[in-house]
Amino acid sequence: MTPVTPEEMRDRLRPFRDKALARGIPVEDVERWMDTARPCATLAAGGDGPVVGRFGGPLLLPVGVPHPFHPFVASIDLAALPADATDLPLPSDGHLLLFAYPEDFGDRESMGSAVYVPAGTTVEERDKEGWAWFENDDEYQEVFAQFPQETLRATVDVSLPYHYWVEIPEEPRWVPLPGHPHSEELAHVWAETHDDIASSGRLQLGGYADQEAVDTDPVGTAVWCAVQEAAAGRWGGGEPVSDDLADWVLLAEWNPWIDGLEGATVHWSIQRADLAARRFDRAFTTVFRNP
Fold it and tell me: What is the pLDDT of residues 155-180, one digit of tens each?
């Protein structure tokens, strides 16, 4: 089933609704939570969906484009992505290249990037090991050697929030998501019913962000870091950066499953306006790791 309309997504979410009501959550709160559902594309090696890209493979960058600082993760053929797979204003063709290193060093800097290669662009194959850290560090080489190398097929899925709190400046500091007094219970029901509703894979486009320990929206972390880095002149190219979470979306999420970096999740977040303008260079990459 391809949940491309609100009605289809709600039908797909029936197991979630049934379990939430059985928990005693008021029906109006359950329905309001379901109204937040978003379509997303789960990319995995298995399944019977169309081939839309791959982890690894040759790194084909436009001629003259500098080599990204972080290692190459995946290439996605946007023309092969099913229509309405996400609610993101993605280009209808070309390739999206994702770069990241799946570690959190405790600072605010972006740990990856995204490059959009429009259809028909002249490209050249680059050395995948030509990124900045690779040459003289055995530890990074060992991690990069474990990056997945496999074809990716797309399944169109439905996504609900995994997070349930927002931070406020006064006590009690953390409160339920506005308009959703049962947000924590509902997020837990979603975690329990997800596997009955949606597929699993290492890479996701669109939808809501998840990580091993989640209470607030991981995209919010990207917003805070991007605003701080832009204010310090280290990111954003001097252009405005919104501090309003509503102006941002999850572009992609990657679960590396790498030995030594267990519990790591990579999120590429981007401002809606930048995505619509195809300014993929303005994606900000955060890593959550729960060692």
Answer: 999 999 999 999 888 888 899 999 99
pTM over cut 0.85: yes
Q: Please identify, in words, the CATH class of the domain defined by 6-289.
A: mainly beta
The domain ranges of the chain are 6-289
The count of residues in the chain is 291
Cα–Cα dist 152/205, whole Å: 12
pLDDT tens, residue by residue, 69-119: 999 999 999 999 998 899 999 999 999 999 999 998 878 899 999 999 999
Q: Are 264 and 256 in contact (CB under 8 A)?
A: yes
Q: CA triplet 142, 143, 149: central angle to 5 degrees?
A: 105
- Please report which residue ranges of the chain form alpha helices under DSSP H: 6-12, 14-22, 27-34, 138-144, 183-197, 218-231, 272-276
